[in-house]
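Title: Prediction job returns without error message
Component: structure pipeline
Severity: low
Priority: P3
Assignee: unassigned

Description:
Job completed but the reporter wants confirmation the result is attached to the right record. Sequence as submitted:
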Amino acid sequence: MKDGAISIFSCIIFLKKIIDAGTKEKFQRIVKKEGMGLFRIVDMESKLRKKRPYCDKEKNRYAKLINKALKDDPDCGGRIPIDPETDELYDKIKDGVILSKLVNLCEPDTVNQDEIKKNEDMNIFDKYDNLTKAIEGAKKVGVKSETNADDVLDGDKERDNDLLGDLLARLNVPKKVIKENPESEKLLNEGETVDELADLPVDDFLKRWFNNHLKNANHPDELTNFSDDVKDSEKYTVLLNDLSPQQCDKSALDETDPNERAQKVIDNAVKYGAVTSIVPEDISSGNEPLNRIFTGDLYNAELLNAGDDDYDKELMKTYINTMNKCLCDDEDTNCFNVCGSSSYPKRAVINFIR
């Protein structure tokens, strides 16, 4: 290999490995030239998958969260910060390093960092290899997005957002927290274990948690999605009232304007102790990934509102520190306050970032 180009001999070996792996039929042709003598193979079937519409708000939110989560990582020095006002995010994730780091924040050592190339001038095959490892790792931690390495290398913004939304939602509600939460037993189906519950895609887990509270509140309907089902704010209002009747009233249901209803939901969430940057338009428009993250924020608030004796204190200390690192946009402020070394507040101390 010379000047980032791969020899024709190496290319032939690469193609032979694909054929030997039994995947010949998936690959119809070489379609993109990345540089002198440098080609990559694109899975044509992947291009036919249905895509969710692109949303600029998601890009902005994801860039800020990634900046906060990885700002102290020495391997990301040349990749962080990402400008949330431009499309820089989609270029910065193309080499797989950022994605692999996010996966390991969800569950340490899921991606072997010794196998991840980190040089800033890596060729397309190293990028592809990094992305493949990162996306495989994402699936192991419960991410169900179908975004693949080709999508990321192509800068497919819709599919990149889909992957990042799933991955950041998982980071917001890690498996370890679900496993250590004693309330998780209330969510189990017959014959199901807590480990199996934690292994669910984060969407499915949060829907089950949400619906458990709707059932407790005798609400007639179930939540089936984080888009149309939450646009009118009714289910959020019922959920928050069930979480804390004293702090969260149902006055939002008296409002006719969808954004005013949503604002009351957000106000109640803040009273309860949720740390979130969602805005009324995200709820009223039914933005699925941002509402999924918001629901995770409410789940975390329930955990942090629990009594001291209900949770392992070392787990809580680790979790609160992680939340401070990953979910607070203000670098000088902690969203959650740990009161001393051995006692924890019954509710979070809020620095609500809009």
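Comment from assignee: result matches the submitted record. Residues 24-42, 329-354 have pLDDT under 50 and may be disordered.
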